C-alpha cells in the first residue's frame, strides 16, 4: 500500500517523539512490503526529495512564520499549501497526518481524490492546550472533519478527544523499537543516576521541578547524578550533579537509558510518554507524574516504577529515592522489559496496517 505520512517537521531539524514515531512507522511499513513516503517541510526555498535509509522524504518549502509565531497563531500553518502540492504530485492510497495542519493539506487531497485520511493526534486535548494558540481549535476541528479515522496515543488522550472535541478516537499507542532499546546490566552506572530525556526548555515537561526534587535526593544520595537532554541553544540552568548530554541520537539515548538507575518524566498532559517506555525496554525503572497517560505506561507493578503528585517536589524526591532502590532487585530489569514489550513498535505498525486496510476497502 502507498502511504503518505505527513509531519510538518522532521529530523535532523527536530528530533522529538512525533519525529521518531514517523521514522519508526515508516520503517515498519517498509519492512512489511508497503510503500510509505514522508512529506515534511524545511526552511529552504525549493523542495527536495531524498531517500533516507530506504524511506523517501519529501521536504517542501515552509513559509516564514516568525510573525505568526510571535502573535501565537497555530504552528506550522505555512507548510499547508506546499504539502498539498506534494500530495498532488504523488499517487498515494492513504494520507496519514501526524499534525492538525498536515491534516488540512490531506483534506484538500481527499476532496480531489476521494481517498481516505488518517489523523493521529499526537497530543492530549484539554481546555488549556486548545485555547493556547490562535486558530488552534479551528485547525483541529478541520482536521477532525477531514479524517476518516482519528487515532489517539492512549486511553487518556482518547478521553480528551471525546470530552473536549466530541470525537471518538481509536487508541493505538506509540511503539518502542525493542531492537534498539535493549537491556545491558553491565552498562549500569556505579553512581545513582537519574535520566530525563524530555525537552528541558518546554514548560510542560517541568524539568525545573525535577531539578528541585533532585537537590533533595542529593541530601540522601550525595553521589547521585541527573542526566538531562542538552538543548541546541545552550544550557538553561545548572546545579551540582547535573550532566547535560546530546540525547537526540537514538543510540545515545538508548545508551543513557541503560546507564541510568531511573528514568523520570515529570511532565503533565502527556499523551503517551515514549521516553519512559524506551527506558523500560532497557530494563530501567521509571518515575512519572500521576497525570495524563503516564499511569497507563507505569501500570500497577511497583517493581517497575513510581508515580508522584503532580505539583509536589517532595513527593517527586520520595518517588525518585524509592525507584533508585528498585534496581537492586535482580528481577526489576526483566519486569521492566516485559512491560515495554506490550508497547512494541511491531504492534503499533500492525495496528495501523489493519486500519489502512479497513479504510482502503
Quick one: how many beta strands?
14
Radius of gyration: 20 Å
Helicity range: 40-55%
Low confidence ranges: none
Give the overall silhouette: globular
Q: Architecture of the largest domain, CATH level 2? A: 3-Layer(aba) Sandwich
The largest β sheet comes out as: 8 strands, mixed
Amount of beta strand: 15-25%
Structural class: alpha/beta
- The multimeric state of the shown protein is single chain
The string of secondary-structure elements, in order, is EHEEEHHEHEHHEHEEHEEHEHEHEHHH
Tally of helical segments: 14
Structural account:
With 361 residues, the chain is of the alpha/beta class. It folds into two domains: 2-175 and 344-360, Rossmann fold, CATH 3.40.50; 185-341, 3-Layer(aba) Sandwich (Rossmann fold), CATH 3.40.50. The chain is built from 14 helices and 14 strands. The chain has helices spanning 17-31, 66-70, 80-88, 100-113, 127-130, 136-146, 155-165, 207-220, 250-259, 274-281, 294-298, 313-326, 332-341, 345-360; strands at 2-6, 35-42, 48-52, 55-61, 94-97, 117-121, 149-152, 170-171, 193-199, 225-229, 242-245, 262-265, 286-289, 305-308. The strands form two sheets. Strands 3-4-2-1-5-6-7-8 form an eight-stranded mixed β-sheet, sandwiched between helices. A six-stranded parallel β-sheet has the order 11-10-9-12-13-14, with helices on both faces. A hairpin with a 2-residue loop joins strand 3 and strand 4 (55-61). Helix 3 (80-88) packs parallel to helix 4 (100-113) and helix 10 (274-281) packs across helix 13 (332-341). The longest helix has 16 residues, at 345-360. The radius of gyration is 20 Å and the shape is globular. The mean pLDDT is 94.
Amino acid at each position: 500500500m502507498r502511504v503518505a505520512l505527513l509531519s510538518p517537521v522532521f529530523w535532523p531539524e527536530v528530533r522529538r517523539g512525533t519525529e521518531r514515531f514517523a521514522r519508526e512507522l515508516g520503517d515498519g511499513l517498509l519492512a512489511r512490503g508497503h510503500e510509505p513516503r514522508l512529506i515534511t517541510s524545511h526552511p529552504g526555498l525549493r523542495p527536495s526529495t531524498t531517500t533516507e535509509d530506504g524511506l523517501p522524504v519529501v521536504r517542501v518549502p515552509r513559509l516564514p512564520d516568525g510573525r505568526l509565531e510571535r502573535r501565537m497563531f497555530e504552528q506550522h500553518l505555512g507548510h499547508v499549501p506546499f504539502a498539498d502540492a506534494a500530495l498532488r504530485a504523488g499517487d498515494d492510497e492513504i494520507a496519514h497526518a501526524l499534525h492538525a495542519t498536515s491534516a488540512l493539506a490531506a483534506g484538500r487531497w481527499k476532496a480531489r481524490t476521494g481517498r481516505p485520511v488518517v489523523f493521529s493526534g499526537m497530543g492530549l486535548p484539554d481546555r488549556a492546550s486548545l485555547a493556547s494558540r490562535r486558530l488552534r481549535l479551528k485547525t483541529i476541528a478541520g482536521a477532525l472533519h477531514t479524517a476518516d479515522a482519528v487515532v489517539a496515543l492512549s486511553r487518556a488522550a482518547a478521553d480528551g478527544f471525546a470530552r473536549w472535541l466530541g470525537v471518538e478516537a481509536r487508541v493505538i499507542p506509540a511503539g518502542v523499537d525493542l531492537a534498539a532499546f535493549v537491556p545491558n546490566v553491565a552498562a549500569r552506572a556505579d553512581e545513582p543516576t537519574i535520566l530525563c530525556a524530555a525537552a528541558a526548555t518546554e514548560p510542560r515537561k517541568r524539568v525545573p521541578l525535577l531539578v528541585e526534587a533532585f537537590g533533595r535526593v542529593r541530601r540522601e544520595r550525595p553521589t547521585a547524578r541527573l542526566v538531562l537532554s542538552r538543548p541546541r541553544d545552550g544550557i538553561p540552568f545548572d546545579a551540582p550533579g547535573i550532566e547535560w548530554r546530546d540525547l537526540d541520537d537514538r543510540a545515545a539515548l538508548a545508551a543513557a537509558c541503560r546507564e541510568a538507575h531511573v528514568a523520570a518524566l515529570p511532565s503533565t498532559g502527556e499523551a503517551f510518554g515514549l521516553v519512559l517506555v524506551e527506558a523500560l525496554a532497557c530494563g530501567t525503572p521509571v518515575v512519572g507524574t500521576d497525570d495524563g497517560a503516564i499511569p497507563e505506561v507505569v501500570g500497577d507493578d511497583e517493581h517497575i516504577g513510581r508515580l508522584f503528585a503532580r505539583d509536589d517536589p517532595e513527593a517527586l524526591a520520595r518517588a525518585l529515592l524509592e525507584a533508585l532502590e528498585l534496581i537492586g532487585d535482580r528481577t526489576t530489569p526483566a519486569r521492566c522489559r516485559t512491560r515495554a514489550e506490550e508497547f512494541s513498535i511491531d504492534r503499533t505498525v500492525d495496528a495501523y496496517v489493519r486500519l489502512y486496510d479497513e479504510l482502503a476497502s
